[in-house]
Amino acid sequence: MAANIVSQETQVRRPFAALSSYKPNKNNLKDLGSGTLYLKLEPGEVSYLVVLLYSPCLHGKRLVILGQYEISVRKGQVTLMGSTLQQSSTFYRVFAASSHSLPVIRCLSTEVNSAEVLLRVCSSGINLLEKLSPLFGRLWQDQQLFSSNLDLQPNYLQPLVSPPEWNLLLSKLSEPAQKQRVIMVCGPKSSGKSTFTKLLGNRLLSVTPENTVPGVGILDLDPGQPEYSPPGQLALVHIQSPNFGPPFSHPVAVGRNKTVRSHSIAAVSPSSDPSLYMSCALDLFSQYRKMGSPTRDCPLLINTPGWVFGTGLEILVDLIARIKPSEVVYMSQDGPPEVVETLRESAKSTVFLTLPSQVSEYTTRTAAHLRTMQAMSYFHLVPGSKDDLLWNGQSLTSTPPWQVRYSGDNPGIIGIICYGEQPPPELLADTINGSLVAIVVIDDMAAFPEHQGEREEELGNDFDAGLRVLEHFQESRLIEEPRILQTTLENIPYFNPANSITLDPQHSHTIGLALVRGIDVARQRIHLLCPIFPGVLDEVDGSGKKIVLVSGKLDTPGWAYTEEMNMKIAEEKAAKTEIYDVIDTKNDDELDLSEVNVGGEDAEIKADEIDSQRQSLFMGLFHDVPWVERLDGSKGRGVFSRVWRVRRDLGREGDGGD
Prior knowledge:
The protein is α+β, with helices and mostly antiparallel strands.
């Protein structure tokens, strides 16, 4: 088990930074067989690893292995992404993708003895997603890295760097404290909020004689880039295992990590409904304060969105005032000054700290791309993965859906609620078909506006009034009847759009997302694709609680529409069939089916023939694919239309490019 490594001398066309000070030789590198590699690191030696191991040779001056692996420390100790790993038989999963900064394994220079670690291949199945979407391509590069004919050059690989200012604060915040720590991390977009939170969480989880923290609480308030949940959700997660991968490597919490409670705002930004966002955030913090011992004593890290202007700044100020964190860390020393001063003023009773932003010279994925990858990773999870997540490489169109009865005796859902824009009833079925919906469990009927006043009288002073956004849910309003209507054609139950209600997060919670596969009108069933563990649904059913499907402003899942096409293209490419004499999708973000030269009548005739052939080839790939309407000939196209372009992401506008 090894990787193709070529020394720096083979790369003469462009310079690159040294990725590793580790120099393999027969004394410090051994292949133990069965996919396991032995490494010995000397004090002060650094090994930048990006791991998936393939060919039988490992040579050269630098060790750069890209992909997934499991690591175990057999002697001494090493540091990895803020965590100190001690000698044990435990293997930790590491996902080192080219889309993110690479993990660094260090044997500290303060150590007297060397450290010995074992690496072995991690067979999670996440690499299977590459054939379903080009976004997952070349994440786990198995080719030579130091070769001039590759588009993935070494200087594209960024090691995870923690500036000295970060290290000082990480050390300070991980020291034992007399009171419970609640640390809020905020700052502009791409400033390193998630990275700093991850490093701090890993550091707090490092068990030492002086540090026996019973886990760490993560209050993830960034619906656009969540760490342990799919997009559109806010979550309170209790973690006991370190985090050694990007968010798409753990779209749900499993094993020793547990999601305590989560809410869906059915959008990727708080701007869609700031009041609902605040209500969900404060309910999750209230749940943290209610957690039983010893979980209750764990520190809490709060990650916030990168929206620091206008209403976004008002949200941060309100959160600081309501939650009263022990420390507020602002991830920028470049301001904007008015933002910093406003936050500092609101945190008068709180320690306010600023750090330099994370420097990133290159990124291979945009925020919208990463959101898509997070959603894909979530929907391709193998249900039932308890300790370690596993992924399947089947397209969603070939996955059997859940069939949920929506009318008749004992329906599976109360109805559909639309957050934000309310579609006309006659278009509701078309609106939700092929879209993402949140599966929300109703803990109490007080989740609905017409019942909230009664429930609050019963609760009295039991709920934390300081953490409720009462004006959002208790404002005087008239509820029009009937509360639930049915669409005329499909008989789908939906909440009266005249009321424009949102669910009270104190009396409801989400258990995940679903993709509407289709609607069976004859049998009155809605088909849902979701990776939620069957045990979770059985528990909800056994408790007698009801479920509501919430539709909102989540990204259009264009990736799901093209999975089957991408898979077939990958299969055709692998088999070197005729289709790839015409279509090459190796690097294209957009497939152009009209690449012809204009020049004379013969050229025009030839262009028409090529267009027709290419259209036939592509339409063959879209045979019986749900959500995609097949147009033959010039159906639906302009009178003089001849050029036809097919985009990879059919929902590009809806995917919320950042």
